[in-house]
Here is the input.
Amino acid sequence: MQHLVDFAGRKSAHNLILRDMLMLENQIPLFLLRRILEPQCAYPGEAGELLPRMVTGLMKELCPFKMVDTFPAIEVSKNAHLLEVLYYLLVPKP
Here is the structure.
């Protein structure tokens, strides 16, 4: 990620990419991301295992609350897109 740091030492490009990933008009359904990931995996169920780990890593990066020890498990199949995952991390379900 060093190439994303500008000459002043800020991670400006990295932050812009993360911001764009959460814009409403840029939301890609998670089931479609899983389908895109499937051809790159060694066996059929690997995409279903890999995507939640990828989304969890992204949410740890994006979440304004640092829940290092108690980060909840993310069920990708129950959310439509990344913005919904982040919403339910921040606003607990009743």
User: Anything to note?
Assistant: Residues 2-90 form one domain. The CA atoms of residues 56 and 73 lie 8 Å apart. Helices lie at 12-22, 30-37, 46-62, 82-90. DSSP finds four helices and no strands in the chain.
